[in-house]
Structures are given as C-alpha cells and as structure tokens.
Amino acid sequence: MKLHREKRRKSLISAERLRRSGLALSFRLKMEENGKDKGPIVLALDRIPEGSGDLLSRSIAILEKVHPYVCALKLNRHLVLPLGLFSGIRRIVDKAHNLGLPVIMDCKINDVGYTNRVIAENYFNAGFDAVIANPFVGWEEGLQPVFETARRLDKGVILLVYMSHKAASEGYGQKVLDRETNKLKPQYVVFAEKALAWKADGAVVGATYPSKIREVHEILGAKVPIYSPGIGAQGGDLKAASEAGSKYFIIGRSITLADNPAEAAKAFREAAKRLM
Amino acid sequence: MKLHREKRRKSLISAERLRRSGLALSFRLKMEENGKDKGPIVLALDRIPEGSGDLLSRSIAILEKVHPYVCALKLNRHLVLPLGLFSGIRRIVDKAHNLGLPVIMDCKINDVGYTNRVIAENYFNAGFDAVIANPFVGWEEGLQPVFETARRLDKGVILLVYMSHKAASEGYGQKVLDRETNKLKPQYVVFAEKALAWKADGAVVGATYPSKIREVHEILGAKVPIYSPGIGAQGGDLKAASEAGSKYFIIGRSITLADNPAEAAKAFREAAKRLM
C-alpha cells in the first residue's frame, strides 16, 4: 500500500513536471489524471440516435452534454466510416481535446506490421491519443511497429484480452499450448502476459465476464489498467467489474440512447465512484 | 474429376442464368468468371508511389494501367483512412466496377457482432463486393451478423486462416485444444474448419507459408478458394503457393511500386497462367 502511494506520488510529480515543461502528457498519464478528477467512465460514441442535424453535429451535441462526467472518449468505425477520418472525425477529436478528454480509437488493429503502422499513424495524425490492438497478431512484423509508433509520439496502445460478446469463448477463451512450459493455458492469460511484456497502456476485458477480469487483474496488477466494455446494453454490471479489478468502464448505448445522456453518464459515474 | 467438371458446368449455368435475369452476380461467381478470363492476380492498392496528382488520382491511374491483368481489386486502410469511405474510396470502387473488377475490403473484421454488422454494412453500401474477417472473434455475436449481412446483399466474406508475416506463428500457428475431440490442433486448422462450416467465400493463407497452404487446401478442397498475399515484397513465391493449392494471388507493392506497373502485373499473370 505504501509502495502504491509512493508510485502514485511519483506519477503525479512526473505529470506536473511534464505540464510545466510544456510537453504533452502521455496518454497513460492523461488517463490517470482524468480518472481521478472526473471518474472512471469512458464514453463510447458508437450508436447516435436519430434527431435533428447531421450525424456529426448530433455526435458533438452528445459529447458536449456528457463530457463533465467522463474521463475519455472512445470512437469506433460506427462514426469513422460514415464521417471520414480527416473530416468529421478530426472535428470530434478536436472538440474532445478542447473539453479535456483524451480520445481512444477502437480499431482493433490485427493486420501485418507494414499495414498496422500505417493504420496507427493515420489515427495518431488525426489526433487520437491511443489505439486498441489485437495481440493475436503477435509481435514481429505484427504489433511491434504499432508500439514503436506510439512510443515515438507519446501515444497509447491498449490490447484486447477478453471481449464482451458471447462467442468470446471461441477464441479468447480457448486453451492454447504454452511453448515454453508445454502446458495448456487460456488464451486470455497468454494475452494478459503479452500486455505486461509489451508494456501496454491498457487491457480490454469485457464487463460481461467478471471472473475473467479477476484472473487478468491478478496477472496485471497496477501495471496495466483494465478497461471494461459491455456495461448496460450488453448486460455487464459495473459493480461486479469494479470489484473484480476493472479501472475504466466503457459505456456506449446506455448513455447515448438514454432520454437524458448527461444524467445517465452522471449516474454511472456516481455509481462507479461509490465503488472506489 | 468428372464431379468437378459437373460442378463447374452448373456454376457457369447459374452465372449465365443470373446475368440473363438481370440480377447482379454474387461475389463468388464474379471471382470465378474473372479468374478464368483475366487470370488469378488480385491487385492490392496499398502503397501508392509519390508523383504528380493527389493520392486519389495516382491510385486510379495505377488501376487504369493494371486492370487488364488482374481479376479483382483489394483495398486496405492505406487508402480508406486518408481518402474517406464515401468520398475518395467510393470513386475507386466505382472505377473498378466500370473496369469489370469486384472489390474486396481488407478490413480484417474482429469486433463484437453489433459493431461488425455496422462495419460490413458501411463497406457494402460504399460498393465493396466482399469483406475480409478474422474468425478468431467466433460466431455468436461475432461474425454471424457479417455473414448474414453479406448473404442478404449477395456479397462475400473471406476469412483469415494464416497470415503472411513473421509472427503469424504466435497466433495462427499456435496449438489449441479442440473441445470436441479434446486433442491439440493448429489454430489455422480450426480456422479452416470454420471457413468450411460457415461457408466462407474465400480463405486467406500467406504465400510465405506454402506448407500451410497445402494443409489448408486439404481441408477446404474446391469448396473455399485460397487467397494468398505476401508474394513479392514479403518474400512469397507464386509457384510454391500455386502448387500448394492457392487459387488467387494478392500482389501489392511488387506491382504498384514497379517502374511499369502494367508490365509487372502482366508478368505475374503470365507466370501464374503457366502454372495452371
């Protein structure tokens, strides 16, 4: 516990030093600070309800209402494909930054390294602070160029460890042979170990599987924070995920489709704060 | 062999019937026809060399030069992210269609089903004829909505089975426990079996691993054609891939960065035809 406080003090000093030096905070430090100030809810701006105005203005309107209650924004192809990265999306990213929120691109990178680098560079150039990637693709000519690009630009890489959907057990839950020990291990344990070894800035574990969160948290400790999607619409429970070790909670439709998105976000934040 | 000829005759009849009925050919049939007419090379328009004109016009210029020697076009995030799906990319897709080429989107779908459906719908709405997806994500709330969307619109789904990069062995090459038989199996065998069970329109196996192509071809036979990227720049060999069972060869930089892209594409096509 003392060690933990010491680490936290150092991280705050380092954040303060960076700010005074005029350098941008790294993604990881921005998340730490925002998490403390604004609570642990990450807004997923995926499904945007119909209404007056175009998709871009409706998306920004929700962000403007919800921003006091969330610590970061996560975007996915729901908006990137119709709006375009360097037109509409860049405006949402700029708006989020003006509101003090880092922005995560949930692109689940899983191509060959040469292409992964191009994908990461494009998202980082458009202003994103972190990308989500799939460790299944491996390191050499796989995710190595993504981590290199992120380190060079002070951006973040978050790895998928166990997803929130039903068929997650088919891949993330399968048993695989560990080449070193010649023993069987769950795939998500292998992925959590990669997240640790590769110094990822976060690990995604679906809130729909609290027992998996607990197992992954035992491997990662405080070194790699757990992000949990799947709360609300997908059936995940904030309390169970929090008790199991999730640090950030990614919430989409339960906020964006609520009658009052700001109230919904605030309620999730208050519930999360009571658990901390 | 007789059975094979019979199947082919039926497929031609069915293509002819569809054409006469005024309905669009399915992706699978378009590929069959084009492969016979124009050879088995799929152009990957990824890396576009610098030159006069913007990225869009340079991309279309290469397509115009190369189209007589290829049977399809494949796009990836190299162009989608900078050009935007419903602006620049749509123009490239329309141009390819005017030149008689189906267009494959190499988006390696691997999200939850709800998002996968949105991704597939966006690409299909922009005119793409097929999407590439990662079977690691599983079926229920995973790739099921992608296959459903593709079937409804007569589009194609191609599954990753073994990729072309070095670290492919980490994920695609790992040994996994088969739940039914309780025996260890290579991951790519599991994926090939999913491609068969889910009636995929193609399976991607890197040309850099001919022995894997052979193993996968033994499982898939003529039911699911093998697409092999990684020829040229990544070190894969057309002859070895063809002899092992690949049906289509995805070639990018070795054509787009050649001094004369048309000549390069033609040379690959002639080499491939000699092997058939």
What attributes does this structure have?
homodimer; 276 residues; alpha/beta
Structure report:
- Two copies of one chain form a homodimer.
- In chain A, the strands form two sheets. An eight-stranded parallel barrel of chain A has the order 1-2-3-4-5-8-9-10, surrounded by eight helices.
- Chain A has helices at 2-21, 27-38, 55-66, 77-98, 113-125, 139-153, 168-171, 187-197, 210-220, 238-244, 253-256, 261-275; strands at residues 41-44, 72-75, 103-109, 130-133, 156-162, 175-177, 184-186, 202-205, 226-228, 248-251.
- With 276 residues, chain A is α/β, with parallel strands linked by helices.
- Helix content of chain A is 53%, strand content 16%.
- In chain A, a hairpin with a 6-residue loop joins strand 6 and strand 7 (184-186).
- Chain A contains twelve helices and ten strands.
- Chains A and B meet through helix 4, helix 5, helix 6, helix 7 and strand 6 of A and helix 4, helix 5, helix 6, helix 7 and strand 6 of B.
